Amino acid sequence: MITKKQVLENLEECKKYIQEAENIKEEKVLGIAIKNRFTGDIIFQSTKTTYKEAVEEAIKSEANLSKANLSGADLSGSNLSGAYLSGANLSGANLSGADLSEANLSKAYLSGADLSEAYLSKAYLSKADLSGADLSGADLSGANLSEAKLDGCLFYMGNGNRNFEALCKAIKTIRHNDGSFEEITSSK
Predict the structure, then answer these.
(1) pLDDT, tens digit (0-9, with 9 covering 90-100), for 13-68
(2) Which of 26, 45, 65, 132 has the fewest CB atoms within 10 Å, measured from its CB?
(3) What is the Cα–Cα distance from 166 to 186, expressed in whole angstroms?
(4) Dihedral pair phi/psi, residue 18, rounded to 5°
(5) Confidence of residue 159 (pLDDT cuts 50, 70, 90)
(6) What is d(CA 155, CA 67) in angstroms, rounded to the nearest whole number?
(7) What is the model's pTM?
(8) What angle do CA 119, 105, 145 make, to 5 degrees?
(9) SS3 assignment, position 131
(10) In Å, what is the CA distance from 188 to each residue of 167, 168, 174, 181?
């Protein structure tokens, strides 16, 4: 037979157990969750409080951020060198002054992004959508812009010609108002 004292002791233990279980449920992960732009699945979870810090942390840990949703993120001045951001949504993102050298941005959506003064040397931007992006003062030397969408981009070449070669390689066709395309060939 159980005594009243034993019942009360067991009751106190049950209360402690329930309280601990509730505390675990209430623990929240603080920080930034970088999600897949299509599925919403978490690609990378960070305890950092800004996208800039979270993305830099992800890159340092060699996380694959392809198809990440970073739309509108403030990544200005960040070090994203060598980042794998293929197919990522960076529309409207602030990437001004960012180091994106040797980054893979193939098929990335950068529409309306601020890439002014960004360092994109040897970046892979094949089939990226850069429509309406601000590339003024950006370094595109050695960048691959093949089949990139450049409609409405803002370029400023300045006194140097570091971007001239990359842009000439990228602009291989002209789209006419009727939607037809004409291939540009060099004259000899």
Answers:
(1) 877 777 776 665 444 557 899 999 999 999 999 999 999 999 999 999 999 999 99
(2) 26
(3) 15
(4) -65, -45
(5) very low
(6) 26
(7) 0.74
(8) 75
(9) coil
(10) 20, 16, 20, 22
